[in-house]
Amino acid sequence: MSNDDSKGVEKVQGPSSGLAVSIDDPIENPGLPPHRERLTDKDPKVAKRAERTVYTLFYISVAASIWAVAAYMLFPIEDMEYTSIRANNLYIGLGIAFALLAIGIGAIHWSKAIMSDKEYVEERHPTRGSDETRAAVVEAFKTADEESGFGRRKMIRNSLFAALIASILPGVTLFRGLAPHDAENSPVDLLKQTMWTAGEHLARDPAGTRIKASDVTLGSAFHVIPESLAGLSHSNGYLEEKAKAMVLMVRMRPEQLTEREERKDWSYDGIVAYSKVCTHVGCPVALYEQHTHHLLCPCHQSQFDVSDEAKVVFGPASRPLPQLPITVDDEGYLVARSDFREPVGPSFWEMH
Fold it and tell me: What sections of the protein cross the membrane (predicted)?
């Protein structure tokens, strides 16, 4: 590097060429490269063929979405058989994958082969545009619509709309499997009935051993299931019944409980039992904070006050946890007085 004091210009000596270049010289704007026309720009037949390819891909997406919905019905996961579950996952997954893939390939081919690919230069300005400029923007959107062919190429536009709408259907269909369903009973009826009945012993989860009231110390929390649940096998509804009947039991001082008059006999000597199924979306409420007497749902942080009938004190849950009425038998073991007096689980199951 050398300095030319007479001209006030700094020069850089190239290592191989021996040329000196002034860094003060402005770099000339090379401009845009020459525009290369595509075959679809030159030949209307090629453009028409590209258009047919695009809307064919969109209609393939529609067919794949419909197939995913059909696969859900043809291979019901409720059969609980390995081959049915495997086929359900495989064919629904393939349908959704092809539906989304066809939309993606079609959109890319549309943009590369049919939409205008001319380059434009737009000068930026730091201030809000005038009314004339804003009107020009509206005109630019109209021009873009014309160049994309969105408004003019009805087959592509309509097939895209059909593909996008159809792609939602498999997901909507799969939501059906989240709700308990029965030929005769509604979800609300099913969730109103659990394995808890009058005289059903409270048992430790998962051991299934009975619990004496004297063994429940102050401040302790027990995970509880109906004793008769142990008689069910996994193929005979064990998990389904447990999901509805699981309970968390806590002991506090009786004077710490806020109870309505009609619920005073639902607890026993400060021992209360509440459904573990969160009333938001059904996650298990299993975290107990002894000092605040709050139950916490780990999924979305809903909190319930055990000392006040498990009322919601924080989070998205919309109603208290259902309480299980309890008492003791002649031997001092804890038993249920009855089933829950309201449906367990998320509040939306109550909507007909």
Answer: 54-75, 90-110, 160-179
- For residues 337 and 325, is the Cβ–Cβ distance under 8 A? yes
pLDDT in tens, 65-124: 999 999 888 887 766 566 677 888 899 999 999 999 999 999 999 989 988 887 777 666
Number of domains within the chain: 2
Per-residue pLDDT of 117-168, as tens digits, reads 877 776 665 666 678 888 888 888 888 777 776 666 788 878 888 888 888 8
Question: Is residue 129, in this structure, part of any structural domain at all?
Answer: no
> Is the domain of 191 the same as that of 332?
yes
Same domain, 198 and 325: yes
Q: Is residue 30 part of a domain?
A: no
pLDDT(14) > 50: no
Nearest Cα residue to 106 out of 169, 70, 64, 168:
64
**Model confidence at 1: pLDDT above 50:** no
Question: Regarding beta strands 2-4 and 9-13, do their DSSP bridges make them parallel or antiparallel, or are they unpaired?
Answer: antiparallel
Q: Are residues 199 and 101 in the same domain?
A: no
DSSP string, 173-242: HHGGGGS---SS--HHHHHH--S--TTPBEEETTT--B-BGGGS-TT-EEEEEEGGGGG--GGGTHHHHH
Question: Is the whole model's pTM more than 0.85, yes or no?
Answer: no
What are the tens digits of pLDDT across the range 230-248?
A: 888 877 888 889 999 999 9
For residues 273 and 261, give the distance between their C-alpha atoms in angstroms, rounded to a whole number. Answer: 17
CA 138 to centroid of chain Cα atoms = 37
> Amino acid identity, residue 23?
I
- Beta-strand pair 287-289/326-328: unpaired
Q: Parallel, antiparallel, or unpaired: how do β-strands 287-289 and 271-275 relate? A: unpaired
Residues 102, 316: Cα–Cα separation, whole Å: 38
- Among 138, 149, 81, 80, which residue's Cα sits nearest to residue 109? 149
Q: Is residue 27 part of a domain?
A: no
Helix ranges, the chain (H): 39-42, 44-74, 82-113, 131-148, 154-174, 187-192, 238-245
Q: Please give the residue range of the domain that contains residue 69.
A: 39-118+134-178
